[in-house]
Amino acid sequence: MVDRSLSFARDAAVLDANALRDIALEAGADDVGLVSLDDPALDDQRRDILAAFPFTRTLVSFIVRMNRENIRSPARSAANVEFHHAADDCDEVARDIVHALQARGVRAAYPSMGFPMEASRWPDKMWIISHKPVAVAAGLGQMGIHRNVIHPTFGNFILLGTVAVDIELEARARPLDFNPCFECKLCVAACPTGAIAPDGHFDFAACYTHNYREFMGGFGEWAETIADSKSARAYRAKVSDAETVSMWQSLAFGPNYKAAYCMAVCPAGADVIGAYQADKKRYLQEIVDPLQKKAETVYVVADSDAETYVTRRFPAKTPKRVGSTPRPVTIEGFLSGLRLFFQRGKSTGLDAVYHFVFTGADRRSATVVIANKMLSVDDGLVGDSRLTVTADSETWLRFMRKETSLVWALLRGKIRLRGDPRLLLAFGRCFPG
């Protein structure tokens, strides 16, 4: 009788980097990169990966190409059907890789390319593996100004997948030694919310509020709109019939991205750049202009930089005010969220150091500096502050979630201010909603 465990062990022993790549390519990947979990580039990812897959020693990063013209279409249904099918392909490739490795006696596992995620963690990090930094570390591409990974051949018309493997690699991965992004700024021109700035600044809140309207936070706000509406007429006064149908479609067929125009117009990559170089004027007319001129609703937070941008830049587009999400449930969530939702346009002229001292169940102290339209957040109380906010942590979080008023908290001593109280109003303007 053959001892299959010994056969599996021998198979696993000969699985070097080339063998792993071949397995991934045979499974349907369009390109493959490998990176050791102990690579310094993954220092901020390692703990989360090991929490889900404690056997991990190597990550197999792979890409699946998408059909470009679907993504470029102003018709969002055409773009989104390609996103959904390519995402399914990613998961199928990852599953087949794991199946092949398992047959060879190698422990391996994969997370979803996108969804489902660990929803119980919301609004903190829901995903197990961040595919983008893994792909960059594995040498599959570099991040463009639009925050998409650009492959040197296929450009940014790709989706990413990752497989965690219990195999040690001898050689370290080498990241791509050049960035395919040549900063043409077409993504800046096409973004309907102004989330991508010419100087490289990225407004996460602007992108998240519009493009992910039918995903986690936007869906929650829509559900609350239903709950708050006293009648069907009151609901329709806030939400158009088309928006309701769009939400139904997302529930039935998967959530739809509202834009992704930054990906659509990107000409980087050897397979993509030819049309742009051959006739830039035609490229702009056929690919960029239709997205810029498309009449559509753009979801924005009231008094945000995005609202100002849409009104000024795109007369054919209609900004619609929606609530700001996600709402913090921990002090760490509040502090980390400041970096994501800071509106630098609203901070013009503000130069202040803020000290935050949180007491109660979630004790923490932090220093927030807003100056020259930039934000920094540091642990502890650093330097001299112009305003010190001392707050019971639970009361502060309820205030952030609009479940209690600032006046109530001040009168009861749950929140105390030392310094110019007008600076708190100025602080709030930098984080509208």
Automatic annotation (TrEMBL):
It comes from the Bacteria. Residues 172-201 form the 4Fe-4S ferredoxin-type domain. Keywords: 4Fe-4S, Iron, Iron-sulfur, Metal-binding. InterPro entries: 4Fe4S_Fe-S-bd, 4Fe4S_Fe_S_CS, QueG, SCP2_sterol-bd_dom, SCP2_sterol-bd_dom_sf. This is 4Fe-4S ferredoxin. It comes from Methylocystis rosea. The lineage of its organism: Bacteria, Pseudomonadati, Pseudomonadota, Alphaproteobacteria, Hyphomicrobiales.
